[in-house]
Amino acid sequence: MRFSEKKTATILRQHGYKFTPQRRVVTQTIASTQDHLTPAAIYEKVHQEHPNIGLVTVYRTLDILAKLGLICELHAGGSCHSYTTSASEHHHHLICSNCGKVVDFSGYDLSELKQRLSLETGFEIEDHLLEFIGLCQACQKEVIR
Amino acid sequence: MRFSEKKTATILRQHGYKFTPQRRVVTQTIASTQDHLTPAAIYEKVHQEHPNIGLVTVYRTLDILAKLGLICELHAGGSCHSYTTSASEHHHHLICSNCGKVVDFSGYDLSELKQRLSLETGFEIEDHLLEFIGLCQACQKEVIR
DNA sequence: TTGTAATTGAAAAATATTATCATTTAATAA
DNA sequence: TTATTAAATGATAATATTTTTCAATTACAA
Q1: Residues A44-64, mean pLDDT to the nearest whole number
Q2: Is strand C in 7 Å reach of the CB of B9?
Q3: What count of other Cβ atoms lies within 10 Å of the Cβ of residue A71?
């Protein structure tokens, strides 16, 4: 599943949110790059084309998009508070520590581990976080080691 | 491996850092709770017993301890910038979304996935992040659902 | 087209984090 | 044990980040 404006609009409206031009632009901006972006970076990009969109709106939009699963917040590599577009239904991320490029992957099943942990600890597991960090092919050549 | 003051002192000194009373207190504070703590929470606890230890020292100490692997930074459950003691060599975390209790687990091998991802994407993988979030046994009874 | 609740932008407030610097201190070697 | 020295500390200030507030605007359902 690729990024789709119609999907974004539908999901927003389904949850009682309006599909405003600002939200469209923010979503589009995050979807149109391969790396992950911080709120400040998103604001900067957005602001270039749309100087009337404020930083506060970016923050508010990020909160909503993340809550609805339309974007993902990344953590590995020290880059907390950084967002990437949410392409497929359930997936995990592989992040380049040099250029920030994000590659999605899916098809890895953690349910066995989840079950083991439930049994061993008594926890009722709700969610998980799985990310890999490393050097993408392009950066392996560039980076001095 | 449990928390040991001697180990903390040794590792700090091995890396050219001094083992100061402040660092001892911060490390001990993080080790003496089951949950994860934010810098502010750590400062608050530390400050009660040692009013002379400042917030800046707490921040500086957390950076060093994290870098040396003596404490772990947690991310799942919206609690970025939250720390827990680092018990065993390599392990992952299971976090209670209600009370913040952290349970370590190890013995789960991601190397097969790591290899698959390397092959598929060309990435040279450096590290990963794996955390589970859920309700611990005690909180399952308490929390209204 | 209209009514209304949601959204926005701007400014201010609140939080969180980092830099600076004079003073103190841990750890090494004499 | 003492002297030496580089590292660490605490206090303050500076910076960065995020949230609140509120009047004006706007999306969208009726």
Answers
A1: 97
A2: yes
A3: 25
